[in-house]
Amino acid sequence: MKKLLGRKRRHAIIRKKVCGTAEKPRLCVFRSNANLSAQLINDLEGKTVFSVSTLAKDVKKNLGYGGNVKAAVLLGEEFAKHAKAKGVERIVFDRAGYRYHGRIKAFAESARKSGLKF
Q1: What is the enclosing helix (H) or strand (E) of 57?
Q2: pTM higher than 0.85, yes or no?
Q3: Which residues of the chain, if any, have pLDDT below 70?
Q4: In angstroms, rounded to a whole number, what is the distance separating the alpha carbons of residues 80 and 78?
């Protein structure tokens, strides 16, 4: 419980500085033990543009387990593809209080490699 509260506190500090707009929406990631999910959010309107998860059928068929670095790389590529289809090139990255390593880093680098700028 103490670990979760620390992450929530860090996320609150990050959210004071990071805000998504229509031109540059916020990419927020959530990491659980078995899966990873990401959503693109326009904070000015309070709307989620779209979300992608390792639980989605089109992503899940390409991987067996959603809680590893390989799954994070595939999810980053899929996320970038969806973002480009929506006309989004530039985003603001919100790591949600997680450390920038492992699955979070693999997801971010994969999304960058696929064409997103942040």
Answers
A1: helix 57-60
A2: yes
A3: none
A4: 5
Sort residue 21 into left (φ over 0), alpha (ψ -120 to 50) or beta. beta
Q: Which domains does the chain have, with CATH numbers?
A: 2-113 (3.30.420.100)
Contact predicate 108/94, CB 8 Å: no
Rg of the chain on CA atoms, in Å: 14
Q: Give backbone dihedrals phi and psi of 71, rounded to 5 degrees, phi first.
A: -65, -35
Burial class (CB in 10 A: 0-12, 13-18, 19+), 76: buried
pLDDT (0 to 100) of residue 58: 85
**CA torsion through residues 12, 49, 80, 20, sign:** negative
Q: Which helix (H) or strand (E) covers residue 15, if one does?
A: helix 2-17
Cα torsion 39, 27, 87, 55: sign: negative
